[in-house]
Design brief:
The chain is mainly alpha-helical. The protein is built from eight helices and no strands.
């Protein structure tokens, strides 16, 4: 099951920062880890499509977490945080670090073609990831809104776009993050982009992704 609509009910936000793009990335991570778990349950954990899906989602996850660790959390630490707020930032960094050895263990399970280790690694990593994303949305995003505001959030958007490879990276990232997204979410997400990027997404990137996605034959999440 790749429908992430029931993953968590997000409360309506009325603040100054629109976190839609962050939410879309979180949903994409949850979606792909559901696909990985389903592939393992079907006995297809070591299949070429599962390996390709793993490579894609973990590449995006590492860029996402590295960008947060190098940009967001240091900028929050530079503010005059309350002790309980500093604990949130500490937790974000610690949760990222906790996932790193599990990512490595799954990589090793693929290399060793160890289906049991793969199943255990995907299960544990998926659980930790979902817990982390929920914690981040509940406790860290309000801090980002309070201390960095829209200007700081826009600066992070530029930073992570550069980390993803700018326009060239967008050819991979945009169709991946919007795969299976609610049409309203997709429309709002694309409306935030420059016109040329929207055209490239519609005419080239999304069709190419649909042709080459490792998940193309595993579900209808398009």
């Amino acid at each position: 099951m790749t429908d992430i609509s029931a993953w968590r009910a997000r409360p309506a936000r009325t603040g100054q920062v629109d976190f839609l793009q962050m939410y879309a990335a979180h949903d994409a991570f949850v979606r792909d880890f559901a696909r990985l778990a389903n592939a393992v349950e079907r006995g297809e954990g070591l299949a070429a499509s599962t390996r390709a899906g793993w490579t894609m989602v973990t590449q995006q996850l590492r860029v996402h977490h590295t960008s947060e660790d190098s940009f967001l959390w240091p900028r929050l630490r530079a503010k005059e945080l309350q002790p309980h707020e500093e604990m949130v930032v500490n937790a974000m960094e610690a949760e990222h670090a906790e996932m790193d050895p599990l990512l490595e263990s799954v990589d090793k399970a693929f290399v060793a073609e160890d289906a049991l280790a793969l199943a255990e690694g995907v299960r544990d990593l998926r659980r930790l990831l979902i817990e982390h994303l929920a914690h981040e949305e509940q406790d860290a995003l309000p801090l980002l809104e309070r201390y960095l505001g829209q200007a700081g959030w826009a600066e992070f958007g530029e930073y992570i776009r550069d980390a993803n490879g700018s326009l060239r990276g967008g050819a991979t990232y945009l169709p991946w993050v919007l795969d299976g997204a609610d049409p309203h979410v997709r429309a709002r997400f694309l409306a935030m982009l420059p016109g040329p990027a929207r055209v490239l997404y519609s005419k080239l990137w999304a069709p190419s992704y649909r042709r080459h996605s490792p998940w193309a034959d595993t579900d209808g999440a398009r």
